[in-house]
Design brief:
globular; two-stranded antiparallel sheet; TIM Barrel; 270 residues; eight-stranded parallel beta barrel; 41% helix; alpha/beta
Length: 270
């Protein structure tokens, strides 16, 4: 599994297992165990997902050492007010049964409180309770505002990204500033799985269209977050490291960028 280096030297696996919408306790724990068996070591969680406790329990029940894992959680919009960030993070650690996370993110660029929240994340980072800190759903404008105010640059910006939402301006800015981009919803909720261009490329490599869409993220140089509670699909999503899209494939897939979103658009948040 390839890794990328964050701007503080921490290594992050380039594929992660996301836990959004995975709230049923047994289903969630099973999917985590299957993911661990498959080879995933990077797990992406959040306070608002309401399943940090299931991730913590599943990891405790596994034989995988904590030091081999990369665990992310995110401060929810409701907890981004200055006085709530650290207490809510302590609660997250308790649920995860851990004394640190590898990456802690602000989940949304909430206008009124994102600055005070980032200061609290800096405190958590300096205390060693988060090995790296970053943001989610931030645009270039939001990142530029941060650069003007803070010394600590986000290590990661987690955003919606897929072949249909390639966000080249954001990716270029993040690369220039040393910020790793993480792609959530990389399969665009399945809308493009029958696209003829993707199907043609999938046939070339004897892969599924989903695997081509995930591999595109790898070759685009971003971290990709997959999500499934199906054992076979979890394996399929991970089986993307025995092929590489060539320049011709990447050029063809570039034409599919249509700005298609399945989630909310943070562009107009002040």
């Amino acid at each position: 599994m390839p890794h990328l280096l964050l701007n503080n030297g921490v290594s992050i696996p380039q594929i992660g297992f996301g836990l959004w919408r995975n709230t049923d306790e047994q289903e969630c724990k099973n999917s985590i165990k299957w993911a661990l068996t498959t080879g995933y070591r990077h797990f992406d969680d959040a306070q608002v997902y309401d399943n940090e406790q299931h991730l913590g329990a599943a990891i405790k029940e596994s034989a995988v050492p904590r030091s081999d894992l990369f665990i992310t959680t995110k401060i929810s919009r409701a907890n981004m007010w200055g006085t709530e960030v650290i207490p809510s993070f302590r609660e997250s650690l308790k649920k995860l049964q851990m004394d640190y996370v590898d990456l802690l993110l602000l989940h949304f660029p909430v206008t009124e409180c994102r600055d005070m929240s980032w200061r609290r994340l800096e405190e958590i980072y300096k205390a060693g309770e988060a090995k790296a800190i970053g943001v989610s759903n931030y645009t270039v404008k939001h990142l530029q505002q941060m650069k003007a105010k803070f010394k600590v640059t986000p290590a990661v910006n987690q955003v919606e990204m897929s072949i249909a939402l390639q966000q080249p301006e954001l990716v270029e800015y993040c690369r220039k500033e040393g910020i790793i981009v993480e792609a959530y919803t990389p399969l665009a909720e399945g809308v493009f799985l029958k696209n003829p261009i993707i199907e043609q490329i999938a046939k070339k490599y004897d892969k599924t269209t989903a695997q081509v869409m995930l591999r595109w993220c790898i070759d685009y140089g971003v971290v990709v977050l997959t999500k499934s509670s199906n054992k076979e699909r979890i394996k399929e999503n991970f089986d993307i490291f025995d092929f590489k899209l060539d320049n011709s494939d990447m050029s063809k897939l570039r034409t599919l960028d249509s700005g298609f979103r399945t989630n909310w658009d943070p562009t107009y948040i002040a």
